[in-house]
Amino acid sequence: MPTKKIKKIEELVSSVLQCLDNLYSENRLLEQKVQELEKEKQTLSKENEIVRVSLGKLKQLEVSHRMLEKERSAVRIKVKSVLQKIEKMDFV
Prior knowledge:
This protein is mainly α. The protein is built from one helix and no strands. The chain has one helix spanning 3-88. The longest helix has 86 residues, at 3-88.
């Protein structure tokens, strides 16, 4: 084989090895990024669950608040009615 062809093959093999090394390095970086993203996903999932539970409690509180407002309104009406009856009474 002529030396020029051997040199060319050596250069190509060297280039392929360099590309392969670059790909391995990139693969390692991508695997690390995937692990980081999986950890972030787990953290966000836990935070999401906490928010979901809190939102459920907030909705329950809102329902309770509406019920209390209705009861409060009913009690006010009854108190006004009783006060009006008391005002009409003659205590002589």
